[in-house]
Design a protein that fits this description.
Number of strands: 5
Helix content: 25-40%
Structural class: alpha+beta
Shape: globular
Amino acid sequence: MEPNIAMATLHDIPELARLRWQMHTEDHPDPGETFDGFAEGFAAFAREALSGQMWHVWVAEGSGLLVGSIWLQLVERVPRPDLGWGHRPFGYVTNAYVEPPHRGKGLGSRMLGEIVAWGRAAELNSLIAWPDDRSTSLFARAGFTPDSEALTVRFENP
């Protein structure tokens, strides 16, 4: 059965914590803390995020468990005189993750497609992402293109 794509709810927080843990520990096998400690702090963050209007999370659910998720944070823009109060936020797409057994089957593309459609319907200014090497092609297939306008300052701390 193909996983179902939906918006996350507060009920999904334990599974979202598990997916975030898996995402990080795939590349960093020694996380420096226990899953239980992480899950407790994550739950506090996720409860606040999912209860507000600035974070939205798309999840893929199969057989009662989440098998993927992608997070979207809305970032308000400062009003401009020429736009009045009609400025539109942009969306920051982050934490795209699909469990290894479900990769390569179009699930990430389906979730990202839902986000792009939602952003268009919500009349966002744009969507931005900083994909890693593994997910660059996923974002490109969804219509994301390189943009040379962003400048960043990177700090040493993770």
